[in-house]
């Protein structure tokens, strides 16, 4: 394992040949994401140094002058990063031979239904009533809505507890008499609820998606992605949204809601990175050790063969890449949505991803069974999730600077609303212009795709060649000079 290599120096072709395209595409995305974080990391460090080195009296002015440009820079940078990922994805999947791959063909082995003749070709096929599936999907969303309501209750209780500890009258106030301590307590409590609710929801969401009885693996995974992202979005970012946009109106902030947002984002983000890496590496190894010990008894006295050793390794099936993409998508949200409040977030993401590449590779090579290779054309719904987070970050960063910060407090609310509307309107227009100007697929890749389609049509489907009239010589040539060979002449 090479520790000083760049994120894009991974042996992607070897990963593809051994683990399959799906795993290789994840490592390709992780390397591309980490590489694109380098410039935001450097700009964030400079922004943080400027902000944290100015006197407190000048903080609001400096924050206003550098935060909006920094937020605009992050929006532009993330847009270019996502567009370049589409180009890289198309080029590499062309090389790996999955650019035309479709995941909608094969049925899931777990799909069940009534056997009926197909209305298309008359062959026996499994049929599951769309009405019954709609009922099951509706039931899933009712359960998810109830869990989201529980999260809102928990988050509200955390902030009520923090308020009781810091805002009561002096006779009733407890030991937390500083807003920093209150932010730390609420942030740590938020981390605890995130960790607990993650475990609960992971179990419930898989159970709900299983009972929906999806026809293909792509439908199954897309349904799980939507449910997971919505719920994870709520319980990971609910506390941050409350501090940024609601706390001032409900209970007020001691110094500035901006400072409390910064403390909370730093604590929650760092804790999530730490807990995520521990959960990813240590806990699976512990469970494997316990299961091995329960089955074999005294491990030191047992001589294991290579096959027996691999039997007790953790399984890295499609849930492996699903969990990894979930982790990266949430990290992308923490990095971009409130980056103007905590400009060092890209630095934390870059450092984490630098080690994440090595940890994931180690886990795959030494801690997991070899996963069944799977072909994919792209990262699926996860790209839409990243696009949605990038769009939300435009609104949140603009709102944090204009509404949460103190520099524009002297302006009327209507004026700030107009400023916010102009800012996000201009940023979305520029963002859309970049997306239009940058081709999703490079020109040489497009040509090669058409060439592949042409060869496939000739070799597999035996499409006849077009009739091409190619007269020999010019129309003015003397007909007598033309030699005509027929069967009699050839004999």
Detailed description of the structure:
The chain is mainly alpha-helical and 491 residues long. The protein has one domain (7-467). The protein has 15 helices and 2 strands. Strands 1-2 form a two-stranded antiparallel sheet. The N and C termini lie far apart (72 Å).
Draw up the topology in text.
Elements: H1 12-19, H2 21-36, H3 38-53, H4 59-96, E1 114-117, E2 124-127, H5 130-166, H6 179-211, H7 217-250, H8 257-296, H9 306-311, H10 318-336, H11 345-367, H12 381-404, H13 413-437, H14 443-459, H15 487-490
Antiparallel strand pairs: 1-2
Key structural traits:
491 residues, mainly alpha, two-stranded antiparallel ribbon, 69% helix, transmembrane helix
Short description:
Pfam families: Anoctamin (PF04547). The protein is mostly helical.
Major sheet details = 2 strands, antiparallel
Structural class: mainly alpha
Proportion of residues in extended strands: under 5%
Side-by-side strand order of the widest sheet: 1-2
Q: Mean pLDDT, rounded to whole units? A: 83
Number of strands: 2
Q: What's the helix count?
A: 15
Low-confidence stretches: 170-176, 487-491
Membrane topology: Multi-pass membrane protein
Subcellular location: Membrane
Protein name: Anoctamin transmembrane domain-containing protein
InterPro entries: Anoctamin, Anoctamin_TM
């Amino acid at each position: 394992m090479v520790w000083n290599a760049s994120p894009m120096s991974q042996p992607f072709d070897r990963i593809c040949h051994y683990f399959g395209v799906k795993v290789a595409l994840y490592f390709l995305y992780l390397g591309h994401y980490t590489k694109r974080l380098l410039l935001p990391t450097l700009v964030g460090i400079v922004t943080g140094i400027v902000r944290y080195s100015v006197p407190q009296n000048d903080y609001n002015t400096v924050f206003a002058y550098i935060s909006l440009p920094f937020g605009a820079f992050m929006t532009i940078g993330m847009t270019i990063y996502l567009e370049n990922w589409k180009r890289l994805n198309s080029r590499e999947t062309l090389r790996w031979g999955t650019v035309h791959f479709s995941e909608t063909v094969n049925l899931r082995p777990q799909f069940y239904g009534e056997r009926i003749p197909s209305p298309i070709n008359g062959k026996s096929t499994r049929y599951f009533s769309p009405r019954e599936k709609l009922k099951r999907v509706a039931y899933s969303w009712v359960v998810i809505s109830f869990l989201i309501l529980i999260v809102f209750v928990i988050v509200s209780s955390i902030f009520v507890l923090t308020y009781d500890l810091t805002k009561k009258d002096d006779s009733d106030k407890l030991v937390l008499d500083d807003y920093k301590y209150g932010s730390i307590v609420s942030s740590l409590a938020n981390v605890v609820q995130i960790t607990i609710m993650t475990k609960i929801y992971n179990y419930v969401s898989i159970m709900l998606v299983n009972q929906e009885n999806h026809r293909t693996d792509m439908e199954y995974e897309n349904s799980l992605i939507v449910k997971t992202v919505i719920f994870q979005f709520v319980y990971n970012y609910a506390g941050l949204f409350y501090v940024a946009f609601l706390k001032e109106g409900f209970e007020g902030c001691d110094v500035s809601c901006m400072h409390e947002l910064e403390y909370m984002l730093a604590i929650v983000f760092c804790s999530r990175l730490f807990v995520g890496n521990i959960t990813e590496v240590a806990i699976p190894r512990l469970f494997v050790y316990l299961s091995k010990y329960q089955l074999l008894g005294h491990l030191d006295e047992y001589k294991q063969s290579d096959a027996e050793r691999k039997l007790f390794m953790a399984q890295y099936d499609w849930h492996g890449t699903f969990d990894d993409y979930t982790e990266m998508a949430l990290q992308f949200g923490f990095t971009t949505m409130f980056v103007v409040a905590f400009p060092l977030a890209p630095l934390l993401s870059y450092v984490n991803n630098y080690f994440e590449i090595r940890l994931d590779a180690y886990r795959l090579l030494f801690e997991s069974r070899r996963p069944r290779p799977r072909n994919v054309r792209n990262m699926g719904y996860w790209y839409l999730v990243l696009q949605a987070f990038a769009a939300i970050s435009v609104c949140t960063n603009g709102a944090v600077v204009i509404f949460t910060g103190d520099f524009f407090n002297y302006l009327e609310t209507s004026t700030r609303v107009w400023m916010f509307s102009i800012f996000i309107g201009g940023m979305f227009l520029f963002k859309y212009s970049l997306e239009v100007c940058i081709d999703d697929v490079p020109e040489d890749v497009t040509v090669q795709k058409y060439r592949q389609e042409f060869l496939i049509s000739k070799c597999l489907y035996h499409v006849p060649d077009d009739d091409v009239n190619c007269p020999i010589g010019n129309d003015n040539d003397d007909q007598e000079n033309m030699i005509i060979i027929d069967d009699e002449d050839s004999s």
